[in-house]
Amino acid sequence: MIKVNGKEIEFTQFPNGETNMNHLSFPSIIGSYHVYVDFKYEEDSDLIKLMFVKEYLDILMSDNYYILTIYYMPYSRMDRSENGSPFTLKYVSKFINNMKFDKVNIVEPHSNVSNALIDRSSPALISYNILETVKREINFDKSVDYLMFPDLGAQQRLKDMRYENILIGNKVRDFVTGDIRGLDIIGIKKESSKRVIIVDDLSSRGGTFVHSSIKLKELGFTEVYLIVAHAENTIFKGELFDHIDKLFTTDSILTEQDNEENEKFKSKLKIYNMEDILND
Q1: pLDDT per residue over 77-132, tens digit each?
Q2: Angle (nearest 5°) at CA 125 between 120 and 130
Q3: Of 226, 159, 150, which Cα lies nearest the Cα of 187?
Q4: pTM of this structure
């Protein structure tokens, strides 16, 4: 999905699979110095569509100030090369840089590598906005309730979330397979609340959060909530919803929440509209 100044651009396919961009779906940008492009990645072809959109906008009016907002930075987990593996985030970043946007907002980047690779970019850390809403919904009491970061990486990304009661997870991995075997938690006090909110940027099947919840419940917590800025469709395939009270996330990636087979998770899932969160 790509929007220009709030209007979604329409695409179809030619019989041979080539992309056909409907130029009539573009809003008029005459008289608008700032032009806002919102980008939701769903598949690799969306990157080609983004290129088409920016090239066409430059033809319409080249001296505008173009601001790109990336709902979820594609390939952000491949933010390094290990043992000769392809550094795909770097390749995708180069592709986006070649479009020469004047400013790029990356929503809740997985690491600071994304912002280092994307020219003229800055992070949009929406977890802070979501947290304030969730706190009101569950009657969070910051004097006794807890926030939890499942690892040091999450804590570093969200270091400005300063609360009296903070928990940090330490994953125990199998040295050979890399699978998570368990999780230790640092920061428990002898007398504490039974409510905790886990905060992170991304969930796939939710394995880290399952282990976190199991350990938290062993320690006496009875209410476990989860905030992730980005959730993949695979959250419906694992055990995540068996172990948490509710997941709070956005529609930055999700596309299958309305599938009939996923209706059973609706009571444990709240999805925020990305545009609403960014404009909050």
Answers
A1: 888 888 888 999 999 999 999 999 999 999 999 889 999 999 999 999 999 999 99
A2: 155
A3: 150
A4: 0.90
**What architecture is the 2-124 domain classified under in CATH?**
3-Layer(aba) Sandwich (3.40)
pLDDT tens column, 5-25: 999 999 999 999 999 999 999
Spatial separation of the C-alpha atoms in residues 28 and 268, rounded to whole Å: 41
Extract the residue ranges of the chain whose pLDDT is less than 50: none
Name residue, tokens 């491949």.
Answer: 78
- The domain locations on the chain are 2-124, 127-278
d(CA 206, CA 235): 6
Helices (H), 158-261: 207-218
The residues, any chain, with a CB within 8 Å of residue 182's CB and separated by 6 or more, are: 171, 172, 211, 215
Asked whether the CA dihedral 157, 127, 123, 47 is positive or negative, the reply is positive
CA 99 from chain centre, in angstroms, equals: 23
Check for a shared fold between 2-124 and 127-278: yes
Provide CB contacts within 8 A for 145, sequence distance 6+: 165, 193, 195, 196, 197
Residues in the chain: 280
pLDDT of residue 99: 97
Query: What pLDDT does residue 257 have?
Result: 85
Topology (CATH level 3) of domain 127-278: Rossmann fold (3.40.50)
CA distance 220 to 174: 26
Which residues, listed in sequence order, are joined to residue 199 by a DSSP beta bridge?
Answer: 227
